Amino acid sequence: MDLPTVTAEARRRILKGVARSPAAPDRVLHRLMRKPWAATEIAGRRQQMTEQLATALLETGNNQVAAALGRNRDLPTPVRWRLAAHADAKVRSTAVRRFAWPPAKPGCEISVALLTHLAADVDPEVRSEVAGHNNTPDDVRTRLASDPVVEVRVAVATWWKTPTADVRRALLSDPEPLVRKAACSPWHPVPPADLRPRLLAMAETRPLVAPHVSLTPALAAALARDPDEEVRAAVVGNPDLPQALRDELAAERNALVRYSLLVAPHTPAETRERLYEEVRAGADDDDEWFIVDGLLPAAWMSRDLNWLRKVSPDERLTLAGSPLAFLRCGVASWSDDLPEEAVKRLLNDPDPQVQKVAALCAASPSAEDLERIVWEHGDHRKVRPGILGRSDFPSQAYLRFATSERAQLRAAAATAALPADILEKLAADVEPRVRAAAAGNPSLPLRCLAPLLADEQRNVAEEAGASAHMPVEWMDALLAAEGME
Predict the structure, then answer these.
(1) Of 103, 139, 214, 275, which residue is most buried, by most CB within 10 angstroms?
(2) For position 123, what pLDDT does the model report?
(3) Helix, strand, or coil (residue 283)
(4) Is residue 257 a contact partner of residue 278, using CB atoms and an 8 Å limit?
(5) pLDDT at site 286
(6) Which residues, other chains included, contact 193 with Cβ-Cβ below 8 Å and sequence gap of 6+?
């Protein structure tokens, strides 16, 4: 089978895919990396990165390519040491690859020795990256906590969630407001009681400690009437706030304050339900729409409903019967210790979002429920890997998804190991997202690949170029047409 005729624009799309294709031999990649854009693509996205290939990419002398290598999770550890010695600080900082998910494969780990070495780098950006890495040793982070550069101390305060008591106190007492604010964030333990009055007196940390200070009547009134809306919203989370002040705040038409009241654990059910109805009725005015359409549907994914994890299963069972769907979503996200019949109710909730959260988070939902929920309501768009990513999701469902009227489901089917005749139909689907999914399927027959290479949609042609079935002679022909002999 011959390579189909493609435009010059399509060639670049295809070659972008070839850059990460497991079928591309080194000789093809060495020719391809003559183009800076292609070298960057190979460096950053190739999963089968070898030390030899990485060395060739570094020898291009392109700093952008070197930085892309640092972001590649499959980069061999010896190459990271070479990046750590690079003249450009931005390249050295990428050697850290702070966010370690998904985890690196064996031989590509970021070692403690490398982190310790880079913690002494002359550039504060590099030290900041080290401060934020999960594997940085405590003694190294302790040293960085007293770094002369504010940004480095901010990084330590932000990312080190469990510092020693001495370091924590030092960060909370730092002369720089940004450091104190980072150390006081909700992702950290509550500040020590003796430091709270001082932190409350500072504008940048007042909202962060307002939920935790002991309230006198005067202080409660002052915080509930503070001119800063963040402070008023934060004090709602304080269990000592009198109900009269909660009612006063509930009457305030402020989106942030009202949202905080709706998700706070100490808001009485009657107040919460009444406020929700008020907010929903006024969703066409002011900022109320943002609460209803933006904040509440995503509350279960944020820390705002994490208190549901700490309450007893009996209390969660009661909240599972709330008329408020966002609360039921929160319960569904922490349902692993609820009785089977309660989880079943959540999986069949009248609200589709509750069903999807339950399908995502329940310990052992039935295969029938998982398939039904995805079929009727789709998978989560903002949560990966989603319901389809569950190890117990039934593989037989993809056969049925292949004939769905919904492009989202057909695209999911196009990624599965299906019979060749079904994949052939999906590869010719009217929806580009379905064709792109089919193009990347390793089970797709070669005869279906040629039309996808000539597809007008950029991502379809790129995915086709990345196919494991892409013939090497086609790669050679594309490179020749680009003048890369």
Answers:
(1) 275
(2) 97
(3) coil
(4) no
(5) 60
(6) none
Contact 455, 17 (CB under 8 A): no
Task: Give the pair of three-digit tokens for residue 339.
Answer: 């009785």
Pick from 133, 134, 136, 155: nearest CA to 146: 155
CB 210 within 8 A of CB 200: yes
Contact 361, 333 (CB under 8 A): yes
Q: Look at phi and psi of residue 107 and say left if phi exceeds 0, alpha if psi is from -120 to 50, else beta.
A: left
Q: Residue 341 carries which side chain, given as an amino acid letter? A: E
Give SS3 for 235. Answer: helix
Q: Which amino acid type is present at position 56?
A: A
Q: What is the pLDDT of residue 293?
A: 79
- With 0-12 / 13-18 / 19 or more C-beta atoms within 10 angstroms meaning exposed / middle / buried, residue 150 is middle
User: For the segment 413-426, what is each residue's pLDDT rounded down to a tens digit?
Assistant: 999 999 999 999 99
Q: Considering only CA atoms, which of 165, 211, 164, 166 is closest in space to residue 185?
A: 211
pLDDT higher than threshold 80 for residue 100: no
Q: Cβ contacts of residue 421 below 8 Å, gap of 6+?
A: none
Instruction: Name the strand (E) or helix (H) holding 267.
Output: none
Separation between Cα atoms, residue 306 and residue 19, nearest integer Å: 43
> Which spans in 236-351 are helix H?
243-250, 255-263, 269-281, 288-290, 307-310, 313-319, 325-333, 340-347
Rounded CA gap, 104 and 111, in Å?
A: 11
Burial of 204 (0-12, 13-18, 19+ CB in 10 A): middle
Could you tell me which of 200, 259, 199 has the C-alpha nearest to residue 229? 259
Phi first, then psi: give them for residue 443, nearest 5 degrees: -90, -5
Compute the average pLDDT of residues 130-137.
94
CA 22, 23, 26, 32 dihedral sign is: negative
